[in-house]
Fold this protein.
Amino acid sequence: QKEVEQNSGPLSVPEGAIASLNCTYSDRGSQSFFWYRQYSGKSPELIMSIYSNGDKEDGRFTAQLNKASQYVSLLIRDSQPSDSATYLCAVNPSGGSNYKLTFGKGTLLTVNP
Amino acid sequence: EPEVTQTPSHQVTQMGQEVILRCVPISNHLYFYWYRQILGQKVEFLVSFYNNEISEKSEIFDDQFSVERPDGSNFTLKIRSTKLEDSAMYFCASSALTGYTFGSGTRLTVV
């Protein structure tokens, strides 16, 4: 069973702080990694994608990937109350359909004003 | 920005009834998917569809489920005889070479 694991939280940070979200995955052959944001009752919204080892920055968001450790993380700088949501890590496993995603259960982030 | 459209947004059905969930993917996307999310649980892959046939399905996608693209634009998920445990949010998605766009979801409640 190919798994994606995340701390369910809740992770609580003050406004303006850095929020750090972590994810591990079991399928060593995985090639594509995604972070989604999901507000309660809404659909997942893509925040970042990352495909190679290292860091990828987009505005206040930085994704980090370490394939050797099977670890992917998301940093949110200058956290805002509007960032309060569940953050889903998703992995495109090797084999089968190229674009099937396996999701973690998500980490609930609360940013306190 | 192009959207994946799902209808209805909320469907209530009696156990044992058939339901059809509808989706209009983004027009130039080639891959289509259904996912579901039971309340409080993870988003789970159900099925992927490419070139007018199922390319992959999960263990959840048993004989009670079917998908079709009846008219080249709509993409439907049918559940033949609903069970209480089918109550969930159902998300349609479509993709091009990389990246997904999810629809806003259909909340299915089986009573």
Notes: The CA atoms of residues 38 and 44 of chain A lie 5 Å apart. The radius of gyration of chain A is 14 Å. Chain A touches chain B at residues 32, 41-46, 49, 88, 90, 96-97, 99-106 (CB under 8 Å).
